[in-house]
Amino acid sequence: MDGYTVFAAALGGLGLVLALVDRVFPANRPCDPREPPIVPSRIPWIGHIIGIIRHGARYYKMVCADSTQPIVTLPTLNSRTYVVSSPPLASLVQRASKTLSFNSLITEVTRRMVGFDEQTMAIVTHNMNNEDGTNTGLMLDVHHAMYSVLMENPELYKMGQSTLRESMKFANSVKKEGEDLDDLFAWTQRGLSLSAATAIYGPQNIFALDPTLYDDFWTFEGGLIGLLVDVFPSIFVRKANNARKRLINALIKYVEEGHYKDASKLIQNRYHAHIGNGFTEEAWARSELGMLMGALVNASVSVFWMVINVFSRPKLLVELRKELEPIVDVDGTKRTVNIHRLRSSCPLIIATFRESLRIYADIQSVRYVTDDTLLADKYFLRKDTVVQIAGGVIHADKGVWGPDATSFNPYHFIESSNQAQISGKDDSAKESTTDRKSRHPASFRAFGGGATLCPGRHFAQIEICGFVAVLILGFDVTPVGSESIKVPEKDDYKFPIGVSKPASPTKVRLQRRKGLEDVLWACDVSA
Ligand code: HEM
């Protein structure tokens, strides 16, 4: 699987986008009786497409709510999309990667997103599903190049150290007298995404060379669906289209001037894998726009949800401080959080990280059916259709997570034996939860699963938990203009393309904790 298309991996509703535009699906054929039960739409052919445009990520919950089936069929135009809402079946979809292909969809999405020419597309699609059995080709090479850095190893820790060094500069720059923030989301998003950009792309990354590209990046991301639909983008999604042009030009300049030589091993590996397979430097520069999206967007949105959910729950905050204090080394005014100890001996912060993703990452895993497939010896999936695992539906399933499935409760991710040791559960955690041990491993969908399970998950955990740990230990976040911090609604009325953003801004006061005003915060990721 190709890493440069990573962002699009999280594109929920992708099948519906492609059906909406001009993907050439075969003419309609009669239903096979073994196909999953059909959920009819009020408006034939386009009803489900209208539904997803109108209701966004919520639409999948709406269509699955009335069904007791683990998989259903949504007829769309002249094709259909199958929607899976049960963990055991999700796991079977992941395993059937020979005929349920991620690459077949993603290559088309990437072409639209970054504007690859025909020659580049020929390299991308060559042996993309390992058709000739030789395990060669761009997709596989890039996959290996990325996984070798992003799995648990010294290169990952080096990159983690570098991103936390940057985000610590950001945290340490908070004024001693405190700061009023108009929007906590904008603050955390900037802190995390620019830190990761420097860690991954080096000190001469495009945002460092031209800070105006930061706004371009989010304008482009916000208009992505319109760009993928690709109907007169210069008219209908003008701002996003112009932002994309500026980003691509900057990436081309970044490559031409050789700044990638000062980047992380991840980017060095990607360079060699692409150029080695015949990419021009310009084509590689374009592909990095997809990588930037994958590496920055979901992580820098998720961090906000973790911060706001912790600071709006006083008891949870106290428990987390108690858990984290023993892993801080004090040296004069310098305090250093040990990230390896955080990961190995602080279950509550790791559980809070995962719970933030469970609640806010309504991510769809999307696969193209390259050949007729019988799932679980029962459900027939027709060639040239799309199957999606509805992450948001599974994450909200009471049968999987317990009666408080839709509430934020980190104890969903803590073994019941550990729960006894961690006292002071928040009110939100009082209801019983299902036993974690008996939960199906495919129930947590935020990082996808199977062959394309997100390789950036360890990096994301390090950069997010490290940054949030320092905020918890060293800062107070208090409400401005209200008595308590309100967690905003997630904006899941939008087309689901990753972790949901907040629907409204959150004004807060950010202040160093009493007695810790002069502390210089750091994180240590060395093994
Ligand atoms: C909270 C943050 C993140 C979330 C929620 C997330 C989520 C995902 C999801 C859902 C997929 C697709 C899985 C599938 O469809 O089967 C994916 C793939 C991928 N992610 Fe992440 N991701 C995050 C952070 C990152 C970061 C920080 C990086 C890189 C540094 C990264 C690199 C990748 C890559 C390379 C793939 C493609 C895998 C492949 O092609 O085999 N991700 N991610």
TrEMBL record:
Residues 419-440 are annotated as: Disordered. Residues 424-436 have a biased composition (Basic and acidic residues). Keywords: Heme, Iron, Membrane, Metal-binding, Monooxygenase, Oxidoreductase, Transmembrane, Transmembrane helix. The chain crosses the membrane at residues 289-312. Heme binds at C454. The keyword tRNA-binding does not apply. Its cofactor is heme. Gene3D superfamilies: Cytochrome P450. InterPro entries: CYP450_monoxygenase_sec-met, Cyt_P450, Cyt_P450_CS, Cyt_P450_E_grp-IV, Cyt_P450_sf. It holds the Pfam family p450. Belongs to the cytochrome P450 family. This is Cytochrome P450.
